[in-house]
């Protein structure tokens, strides 16, 4: 082997064109990592490997110096910041090419999944969700991420990977096919650890060159194109990669070596930095926990998941799928395609449908086409067992796709129950509205007659010039007060009942024009003041009901004020697609325990204040009918703010919002 190596180097020496004198005088600094047999530190402390020999052949007359690096990423960084001139052989990736220049490709790294011999017959899909070892910063990280739900465990070197696999820290490792196999042969472990078929991916490799050394890049490419032959590359590969173990009776030797390696590995692992390993394991553990939580969450919410490869063939499924669709599991175990699963689900009755076979096939093919174009498709499907699923097909990236089936049977049952309760509530409200209207009308007639009789009695007493005792006069006053209170109650009932009827009268209301008459109708006490913001926004509602809402809010602020003087502020603003109004007072405020029930019918906060308890309920019902919402803020010191919002394009359907879309602070 040494003779072959010397012969190759001699041939390169005779065939190469000499570098210029200037280049020969400039030392070439080569960064290298421990990646045997491509590059490693030999027993004598010198850099050795395929990359080293190939660099010497291409730069025969240049002086080479070697600088160790911790990872491939650090090598690129060293080229970038001028600490090194060339790297060892590295895979060509977009990220690396954006940071350094590269020579013409000299070969390719084939990658494979390696595992213990007892699992070597499994397919790659069987390792979905398993622990996969990779070298930190290598292309293997990107490749391993393509294995569905893989839990990546990062190592510093390939030897660390092998050790982790042998001691059971990982289920498999991803490595460069040739170099990893050569390392296994060197350690006589190539019968205990074997690649999984088929191989994973292949990446062309080349030397990376510092952007500061363009003449070096040009010289190396010239030699690659003009003097380096495929046979010479083959000779170098034979030198460094050797041949597979062929002794069919060597299992005892291999396993004896394996035991020795395990023992040595355990001793070596104790000497590693415990802090660094603990931090790495913690990071890996967190990633694994996150992945497990995702899978457990999908199972917990009755989700069925299937993952497909680039050919849309099933490679992974969760317990939720096996539980929800047991008839389809045998198909998945045989690697059925998405189209086959969809067709069989209808033909076997797993999913209800009235399609013919041709229609089902056309639907499945269309589904596959949309997925490959990067589209996600969601629809509702119903099983023959009465369960309903939200079905989604979506691309996952890296050439993988997934089907999700979320059991929404319970949600649909709840929605149906809510709809039925809504109809019952609407029917009850309609009956209550009819009753309120009839009751108000039936009560109003005798009340009017009673008030008229009291007025006639007072007039007759005045004409007769009769003096009645004070207590009789008080009784007349009480009757008039009670009649007046009854009149307000009946009017409140009528207003509450008529809120629906007046929606059809909506028109564009100029609030600035209407506010003076609204304030005049309220009858503002002498010591109260109303501050109205100029340029209030308009809104499309029934003018009479808008007047009634504002009158009630202003009257409410006056009635519940605890002082002889007060200020009421009215503001309004357009916010997005909402028109928002505020009515603020400086009264005593509203206790927190009453804020949630203040809009309930017949709710009165004080027995000392006259009122029917229907004013705020009428306001809320009316604003809801406009498609808006209302709420109240109570200040911690004094005062309260009633805030209601109405859509710019006022809705006519009952929305039932209890909150406005914007807080009142948006108006200040």
Automatic annotation (TrEMBL):
Alphabetical keyword list: ATP-binding, Kinase, Nucleotide-binding, Phosphoprotein, Signal, Transferase, Two-component regulatory system
Stretches assigned to coiled coil: none
Record's signal peptide: 1-24
Gene3D superfamilies recorded: 1.10.287.130, Histidine kinase-like ATPase, C-terminal domain, Periplasmic binding protein-like II
Transferase is among the record's keywords: yes
GO molecular function annotations of the record: ATP binding; phosphorelay response regulator activity; phosphorelay sensor kinase activity; protein kinase activator activity
Gene Ontology biological process terms from the UniProt entry: osmosensory signaling via phosphorelay pathway
Domain (Histidine kinase): residue spans on this chain: 438-650
Tagged with keyword Ribonucleoprotein: no
InterPro entries: BphY/WalK/GraS-like (IPR050351), HATPase_C_sf (IPR036890), HATPase_dom (IPR003594), His_kinase_dom (IPR005467), HisK_dim/P_dom (IPR003661), HisK_dim/P_sf (IPR036097), Sig_transdc_His_kin-like_C (IPR004358), Solute-binding_3/MltF_N (IPR001638)
Enzyme Commission number, as recorded: 2.7.13.3
SUPFAM superfamilies named in the record: ATPase domain of HSP90 chaperone/DNA topoisomerase II/histidine kinase, Homodimeric domain of signal transducing histidine kinase, Periplasmic binding protein-like II
Catalytic activity: ATP + protein L-histidine = ADP + protein N-phospho-L-histidine
Enzyme class: transferase
Name this protein carries in UniProt: histidine kinase
């Amino acid at each position: 082997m040494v003779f072959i190596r010397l012969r190759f180097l001699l041939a390169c020496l005779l065939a190469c064109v000499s570098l210029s004198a200037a280049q020969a005088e400039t030392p070439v600094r080569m960064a290298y990592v421990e990646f045997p047999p491509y590059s490693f530190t030999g027993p004598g402390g010198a850099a050795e490997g395929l990359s080293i020999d190939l660099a010497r052949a291409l730069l025969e007359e240049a002086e080479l110096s070697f600088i160790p690096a911790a990872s491939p990423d650090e090598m690129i960084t060293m080229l970038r910041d001028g600490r090194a001139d060339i790297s060892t052989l590295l895979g060509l990736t977009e990220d690396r090419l954006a940071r350094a220049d590269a020579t013409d490709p000299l070969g390719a790294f084939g990658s494979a999944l390696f595992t213990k011999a007892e699992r070597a017959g499994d397919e790659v899909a069987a390792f979905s969700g398993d622990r996969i070892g990779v070298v930190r910063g290598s292309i293997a990280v990107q490749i391993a991420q393509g294995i569905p739900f893989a839990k990546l465990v990062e190592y510093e070197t390939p030897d660390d990977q092998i050790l982790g696999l042998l001691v059971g820290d990982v289920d498999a490792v991803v490595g460069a096919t040739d170099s990893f196999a050569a390392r296994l042969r060197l350690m006589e472990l190539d019968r205990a650890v074997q690649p999984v078929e088929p191989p994973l991916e292949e990446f062309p490799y080349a030397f990376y060159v510092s952007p500061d050394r363009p003449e070096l890049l040009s010289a190396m490419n010239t030699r690659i194109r003009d003097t380096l032959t495929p046979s010479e590359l083959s000779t170098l590969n034979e030198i460094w990669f050797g041949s597979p173990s062929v002794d069919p009776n060597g299992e005892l030797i291999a396993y004896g070596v394996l035991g020795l390696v395990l023992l040595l590995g355990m001793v070596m692992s104790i000497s590693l930095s415990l802090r660094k390993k603990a931090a790495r394991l913690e990071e890996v553990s967190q990633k694994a926990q996150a992945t497990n939580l995702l899978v457990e969450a999908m199972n917990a919410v009755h989700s069925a998941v299937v993952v497909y490869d680039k050919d849309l063939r099933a490679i992974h499924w969760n317990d939720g799928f096996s539980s929800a669709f047991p008839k389809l599991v045998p198909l998945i175990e045989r690697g059925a395609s998405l189209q086959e699963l969809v067709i069989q689900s209808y033909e076997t009755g797993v999913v209800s449908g009235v399609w013919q076979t041709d229609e089902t096939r056309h639907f499945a093919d269309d589904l596959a086409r949309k997925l490959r174009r990067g589209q996600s498709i969601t629809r509702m499907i119903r099983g023959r067992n009465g369960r309903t699923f939200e079905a989604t097909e979506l691309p996952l990236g890296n050439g993988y796709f997934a089907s999700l089936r979320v059991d929404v049977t319970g949600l649909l049952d709840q929605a149906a129950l809510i709809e039925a309760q809504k109809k019952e509530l609407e029917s009850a409200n309609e009956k209550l509205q009819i009753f309120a209207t009839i009751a108000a009308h039936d009560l109003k007639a005798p009340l009017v007659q009673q008030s008229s009789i009291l007025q006639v009695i007072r007039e007759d007493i005045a004409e007769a010039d009769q003096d009645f005792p004070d207590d009789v006069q008080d009784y007349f006053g009480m009757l008039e007060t009670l009649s007046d209170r009854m009149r307000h109650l009946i009017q409140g009932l009528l207003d509450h009942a008529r809120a629906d009827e007046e929606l059809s009268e909506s028109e564009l209301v100029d609030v600035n024009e209407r506010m003076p008459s609204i304030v005049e109708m309220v009858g503002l006490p002498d010591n109260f003041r109303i501050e109205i913001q100029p340029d209030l926004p308009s809104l499309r509602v029934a003018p009479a009901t808008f007047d009634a809402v504002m009158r009630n809010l202003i009257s409410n602020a006056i009635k519940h004020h605890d002082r002889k003087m007060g200020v009421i502020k009215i503001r309004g603003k357009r916010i997005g697609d909402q028109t928002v109004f505020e009515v603020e007072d400086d009264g005593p405020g509203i206790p927190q325990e009453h804020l949630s029930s203040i809009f309930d019918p017949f709710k009165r906060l004080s027995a000392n204040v006259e009122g029917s308890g229907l004013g705020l309920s009428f306001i809320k019902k009316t604003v809801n009918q406009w498609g808006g919402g209302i709420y109240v803020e109570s200040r911690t010191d004094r005062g309260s703010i009633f805030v209601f919002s109405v859509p710019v394009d006022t809705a006519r359907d009952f929305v039932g919002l209890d909150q406005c879309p914007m807080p009142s602070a948006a108006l200040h």
